[in-house]
Design a protein that fits this description.
InterPro entries: Aldolase_TIM, OMPdecase_AS, OMPdecase_type-2, OMPdeCOase_dom, RibuloseP-bd_barrel. By secondary structure, the protein is of the alpha/beta class. Helix content is about 45%, strand content about 15%.
């Protein structure tokens, strides 16, 4: 099962983190921009080429120490079809390097439309009798607030293709409580209800290490809720944004983990992507700086949660 592969990668590398590939042109060293714009002009195609070159350098520097990457689709879509092509090529390159890929698309629809999203990002598309993969990520973030109509199409695709999903439960943004913290007539909050739904949906995608193929997005900026949900959602693996630039640290993410050091993968995007700027080093060092920050993040979290062990 898809999430099992992520857990195995985390244990093998003793690193429960994911590098968010959310590139902006402002993050990319000048020499990469210059080469791409010389080839394609100051165009969407030139910008997309720079994103891809930048991403490949990061992936090369991180693939032996970080188990997963999480490209955010919006940062590619803003450059049109050229950017979407760079997203597809980034996914393919990371997977070829042995990394688990979570596409952060937060897709949300129902029926045939959600089936199309599922086919595009996780499954196959039929063309003249042939089944072809469009993006072929390992997992996709989804918005479950349309209810089970928006989740069920994904579950069948995940079961057939060995894929996974992460459902938005308690997100890291400051205004998340406007909806997610609202108390229902049953006494539970909206996010608690959504977390319970993840447990139920996950019964269709069981995993060999106790975590299903239906994960939950729970932000590092809400450690009390992380702790609460870890206790009440024993089979739901967490994707934890909000570490680093958004303010979360090792103490904040620690409640997401179980006694084996499993249960979550923690995302850092700007902290890794912009490490070379924070260090004020030469742009040619951007990948090495990203690696140093990824190691620092790994060591900080593992020092807090302890050795990561797969259950027998």
């Amino acid at each position: 099962m898809s999430m099992d592969r992520l857990l195995e990668g985390i244990a093998a590398k003793q690193n429960p983190t994911v590098a968010g590939l959310d590139p902006k042109l402002a993050y990319i060293p000048e020499y990469i921009l210059k080469e791409s714009f010389e080839k394609y002009g100051e165009t969407l195609e030139g910008a997309a080429d720079a994103l891809l070159v930048y991403n490949k350098g990061l992936i090369d520097a991180l693939c032996d120490i970080v188990p997963a990457v999480k490209p955010q689709a919006a940062y590619y879509e803003m450059y049109g079809w050229q950017g979407v092509k760079a997203l597809a090529e980034t996914i393919a390159y990371a997977r070829a390097k042995g990394m688990y890929v979570i596409t952060d698309g937060k897709r949300n629809d129902i029926g045939a439309t959600m089936q199309a999203y599922a086919s595009a990002h996780l499954g196959v598309t039929e063309v003249c009798g042939k089944n072809l993969s469009a993006f072929d990520a390992d997992a996709l973030t989804v918005n479950g607030y349309l209810g089970s109509d928006g989740i069920e199409p994904l579950l069948s695709v995940c079961a057939k293709g060995d894929k996974g999903i992460f459902v938005l439960v308690k997100t890291s943004n400051p205004s998340s409580g406007e909806l997610q913290d609202r108390q229902l007539a049953t006494g539970e909050t909206v996010y608690q209800l959504m977390g319970g739904n993840c447990e139920t949906w996950g019964e269709k995608l069981p995993g060999k290490f106790g975590y299903s193929g239906v994960g939950a997005v729970v932000g590092a900026t809400y450690p009390a809720q992380l702790d609460e949900l870890r206790k009440t959602l024993p089979h739901t693996f967490f994707l934890v944004p909000g570490y680093g630039a958004q303010g979360g640290g090792a103490d904040d993410v620690a409640p997401a983990f179980d006694d084996n050091g499993l249960g979550a993968v923690v995302n850092s995007s700007r902290g890794i992507l912009c490490a070379w700027q924070k260090e004020k080093c030469d742009g040619g060092e951007y990948a090495a700086a990203a690696r140093r920050e990824a190691i620092r993040m790994r060591d900080e979290i593992v020092a807090r949660i302890g050795e990561i062990k797969l259950p027998n």
